[in-house]
Specification:
heterodimer; A: 397 residues; 2 helices; B: 93 residues; alpha+beta
């Protein structure tokens, strides 16, 4: 019997100031929209049904309203697509543009991270991929090149794949220092460039690697995720494969801040957009079990830079909730108060509109969630509609 | 007489909607036929083979009824009027 065609999703029509949550799953991309109140969410999807979407991003620089997504087909490979109308239509280049040069001998397995560059460098965008490598575009995604500095790093040959593969999953562009960027790979750890990607220095001092004979190697750590504060980019929080850390110096050193969490194993970490002392994690029992401890779904929040963490449970199931939240499935918005969002392997999206104090189920019944990205919508109207509205206003005046 | 590719549904957006594409020249092998296909429809070729020129792990190419993986891979010979079917493997999860 031939498969029934999956109907195209009913697109969303966000307005400026609305909140958009991009939800990447193992079977496609979903979009959630809410107004600034963030009490109710409208769901649209799946886009790219059948493809996993490990990376997505919203780019509002230079008047754009572009959703980037990286669908990966088990059959046909991974690629980078975009929509300028909130999912109504998608651009899919004839040939995938993020490609390893043939001379590298490597084949793109997946795109794990899409990171728009600095606000004042509006055409620069980065992708972290598997096998671990960084790609960069200086022309808003028209063309891409492999970052040779990282690809040729002498450590790379000794990086080992973790359970998710050998992936470069974190790309943090410093909003204040041109040329500085932190990336993280599993396994390998954190690396930083201060010269625009020409050279990379390992930044794992203080981070454990319990699965190696030497638990404090120079590199080889299985960093799961790093979050960076936008106002103080030297303040980083790192969720490790065993270990929860804070850095106050852009990754030069890391201090253990697992003070009061039920486990220092976990995948995701989020940080407040303004307060560098406020961060969010979702601890899991262990690397053997990888589910929430005691069947309780708890986000832990610190408001003092990790000196202590408190369980945020209101609205989250506290019985029989053996959930898993993976490395890129938590996001914090830039509104005030900040909203926090996470998605589970069981296909539920939870949202907090009050910095973690209380939670609501924003969506359920989705495929396993691997990516959650929250963004405040800008440039919701197309350029043509903005121009027409401006003409109408002038006429009325 | 021409070598012809059968294009699966997911790749037809990259073949101009065509289910079947005859390629130019007289390709003797699957590799040469893919090169000829790529000249007209690079989007199909690049979704069938990787950057290093290997057949993607979950894609099968059949010349007639023979899976080229069981023959000589991309060097499998193609008859002058041969048909190459591009088929997604049974995989998913």
């Amino acid at each position: 019997m031939p498969a029934k065609k999956i109907p195209p999703p009913k697109p969303l029509s966000p307005r400026d100031g609305d909140l958009l949550v991009l939800v990447g799953t193992m079977k496609g991309l979903f979009l959630l929209r809410s107004d600034r109140g963030r009490r109710k969410f409208q769901l649209s999807g799946p886009y790219f049904p059948g493809s996993s979407v490990y990376a997505a991003a919203f780019d509002s620089r230079a008047g754009r309203r572009r959703i980037w997504a990286a669908p990966s087909s088990m059959h046909w490979g991974a690629e980078l697509c975009w929509s300028d109308d909130f999912g109504k239509t998608w651009s899919q280049p004839e040939t995938p543009r993020v490609r390893f040069p043939e001379s590298s001998g490597a084949t793109l397995k997946n795109i794990w991270q899409i990171s728009p560059g600095r606000a004042d460098d509006a055409d620069t965008i980065f992708c972290g991929v598997e096998p671990s490598a960084l790609f960069e575009s200086g022309d808003a995604g028209e063309s891409w090149s492999l970052n040779d500095g990282l690809w040729n790093h002498p450590h790379r040959a000794k990086w080992m794949p973790g359970g998710g593969g050998l992936c470069l999953h974190t790309v943090l562009v410093d909003p204040k220092r041109p040329g500085r960027m932190v990336v993280a790979t599993s396994t390998g750890g954190a690396y930083r460039t201060d010269d625009g990607g020409r050279s990379w220095n390992v930044k794992n001092r203080g981070v454990r690697a319990e699965f190696l004979p030497d638990p404090h190697p120079e590199f080889g750590q299985c960093v799961h995720k790093i979050a960076q504060n936008a106002t103080n980019p030297d303040r980083l929080f790192l969720q490790n494969h065993w270990g929860l850390y804070r850095s106050d110096d852009g990754g030069d050193s890391w201090n253990d801040v697992a003070n009061g969490v039920p486990s220092d194993f976990g995948f995701c970490v989020g940080i407040h957009p303004r307060d560098p002392d406020t961060a969010f994690v979702l601890p899991l029992h262990s690397d053997g079990f990888r589910c929430t401890p005691d069947g309780k779904l708890r986000v832990y929040r610190t408001k003092n830079g990790g000196k202590s963490w408190q369980a945020m449970t209101r609205g989250l199931p506290q019985k029989g909730a053996l959930e898993t939240v993976v490395r890129d499935a938590m996001s914090v918005d830039s509104l005030d108060p900040a909203g926090v969002y996470f998605g589970t392997r069981s296909g539920r999206v939870y949202a907090s509109r009050d910095e973690g104090r209380s939670w609501k189920l924003a969506a359920e019944g989705l495929p396993p969630i691997v990516c959650v990205k929250a963004a405040v919508v800008a440039n919701a109207r197309s350029k043509a509609r903005r121009a027409k509205a401006a003409r109408s206003r002038r006429k009325a005046a | 007489m021409a070598v012809r590719f059968l294009i699966p549904g997911p790749l037809q957006p990259f073949s101009g909607g065509l289910r079947s594409v005859a390629v130019d020249g007289s390709p003797a092998t699957v590799r040469e036929a893919l090169d000829a296909l790529g000249a007209r429809h690079p989007g199909v070729r690049d979704r069938v083979i990787t950057e290093v020129g290997e057949i993607r792990p979950h894609v099968n190419l059949f010349v007639g009824e023979e899976n080229v993986r069981d023959a000589r891979g991309l060097d499998t010979a193609v008859p002058a009027d041969g048909e190459i079917a591009i088929l997604p493997a049974v995989s998913g999860g």
